[in-house]
Amino acid sequence: MNSKPIEGVNITNTNSQITVVSDVEGSFSIQVKESEILVFSAVNLNPVKKRITKDHLTSEELLLIEMTIKELELKEVIINENANITAENLGIIPRGQKKYTQAERQLATAGDFKPIMLLGLLGGSMQLDPLINKINGRTKQLKANVEIEKKEKNLLKLGYLFDDVYFVQKLQIREENVNEFKLFVIENAEFCNVLNSKNKTSAEFLLGELAAKYKEIISSENK
What superkingdom heads the lineage (predicted)? Predict the structure, then answer.
């Protein structure tokens, strides 16, 4: 049977919920421990589960996974703007799995240092990467990147739900202050929770309250 490297396969560690994707050469790198299970999945391939053994971790040979093509017969497909098409619905990743952004994957790979890890150092079992990253500040920077990424996404969601005309005419925010007000809004944790729940009615209510607070701050600064 002919075989070739497969690009775009999702590899998920079912314990840590970290997911990576194979490159053009079919290669991938993921953090995994003994007895943990890796799930290999793609929209056109039959999924494969692999339990990692001690031999896998100590062997110098590459872990080779063989996947077979999935036969799909589609009678009719209708796509419209309201279709709920997701990676889960297409079978690319398991349902209910946590999705990680690039910044979150980098943070998970770097490892978050915890004082309890120092106990492992005495027994020779401590991983050095988390400690090194703590010393050089990389983990702190990665956490900051995750927060920045979240704020950027919240700004995009806010702009999608409410255009600038809404802020100017409905909330009476001066046009030159609209962008500043948006930044002020996404710093509010309660509003971000409502925004991500996609409840536009509640979002409008909170925006009204936040607009009043914002205008009070502007007014006091101008005195």
Answer: Bacteria
List beta partners, residue 48. 40
Note the pTM of the prediction, 2 decimals: 0.40
- Lowest mean per-residue pLDDT among 57-66, 156-165, 173-182: 57-66
Please state which of the four CATH numbers 2.60.40, 1.10.357, 1.10.287, 3.30.30 is assigned to the domain occupying 1-99: 2.60.40
8 Å CB contact between 31 and 50: no
List where CATH 2.60.40 sits in the chain: 1-99
For tokens 């106990």, what's the residue?
119
Q: Are 34 and 53 in contact (CB under 8 A)?
A: yes
State which H helix or E strand residue 136 sits in. Answer: helix 128-136
Q: What is the pLDDT of residue 170?
A: 92
CA distance 112 to 174: 43
